[in-house]
Amino acid sequence: MIPSIFAAPRRFPAPREMPQPTYSCRINAEPIARYRPGGYHPICLGDTFKDGRYKILHKLGYGGFATVWAARDRSRQEYVALKVSAAEIHERSYELEVLSALAALNSKEPGARHIVQLVDHFLIQGPNGTHDCVVLEFLGPSVMDNNFLRLNNGRLPGQLAKSCIQQAFLALAHLHKHNIAHGDLHTHNLAFVVPSLHTLTEDEFIEKLGLPQIGFVARRDGRPLEPNLPPYLVQTTSYPAEVSLTRHQQIKLVDFGESFFTANAPSKVSTPLCLRPPEAFFGDRLDHRVDLWSAGCMVRSFELVVGKPPMNAFLTSRRSIVRQMLKTASDDLPQRWHWKWEFMDETWKGQRTENTFMEHLDDLYYDGKRNTDLMPVDVDKLGALVHRLLRFEPATRASALEILQDDWFVETRREPATKAPVQGFLQPEWFVETRT
Ligand SMILES: Nc1ncnc2c1ncn2[C@@H]1O[C@H](COP(=O)(O)OP(=O)(O)OP(=O)(O)O)[C@@H](O)[C@H]1O
Questions:
Q1: Domain Protein kinase spans what residues (predicted)?
Q2: pTM of the predicted model, to two decimals?
């Protein structure tokens, strides 16, 4: 069978064939076209669900297959996130199944603390179909939130970055132990926990997230809107920087939209190209080890530590990504993929590519412009960790548990709590709770 990497490129219609948009909205939000049968459910601020239990207060974001809303859970007197999926993925995503399976474990393992909690779920029937709605505990901004990073020279403080890496591996170890893969690991899916938000009144909460900006939707031909569309779109909230600066240390893994049980693995993953594992490019069977490659890229890209985005993510092709993999992976391309790679890159004649990974690490980190609170020995250890993860052969990648047993983290756990570094970001109890 011809693998998908060789599929013909998608053809786009010439500009004059492009259908004219029928609707207008003067706000930067989700594409209006996704409000159609099979697409998003139209939601307005103040809407309530499940007999009035959940009241929509703000918009948290949207993705290819869902809109996510901040809501008040009037039964538990807490804020929650409502993720309302597009109707076409109803019964096609494992998100609810995986989150329910994790909730049913009721685990006290350290890794369970680093996975977003499922609060509730229900179905919504609307003009665009039947939508899954998962209710999640309310979390703060992602670790790569722009507001926070702007105040920190675009880089997480070193010890916080290290702590985020460790917490991400605790979450992965927990998932993998239960034969679950996250399938979409990247820094935007690691969110800070902000317990203080739950103490706010509704008005204070909305003020904290910023008053919602809305833009009315109109048909260009002046005719009335169909019921498939909301009367207005809401701009995604932007978290205030000071929330992150003073309070955050615990993080959780979110967005289980691409997760799967390893016994029932999909044939492809939707991870961004630059974090996608080689087995997904070369058509091998996928399992939880896809997360280990993505984790290696996430750490390797130094996005968490250096503050740089992953390797040439913009407008990149599969071929250029595999070429970068050849320079980065710590093992050779497995024999079984040679013929596929020769097909993709006719210039490749089986030669080894010089591994340049460690060369630029120090240069990138010690750029003379930003905070460099990690020691050179930390940077070396980080590099060594990445080498254990970025291996073409999935079976030879270090497991999440093995990574957690690495010297670098073991030393962290031995550090006296009073030495918890970096402007009070890391609180002593965190070290205690993650001690194994
Ligand atoms: N539990 C939560 N608490 C607070 N905000 C959340 C929560 N879950 C998601 N969000 C916000 O909503 C956004 C979209 O959520 P999520 O990534 O789960 O949706 P998605 O449709 O799967 O997105 P994508 O297609 O980009 O993967 C996130 O970037 C985050 O900002």
A1: 54-409
A2: 0.85
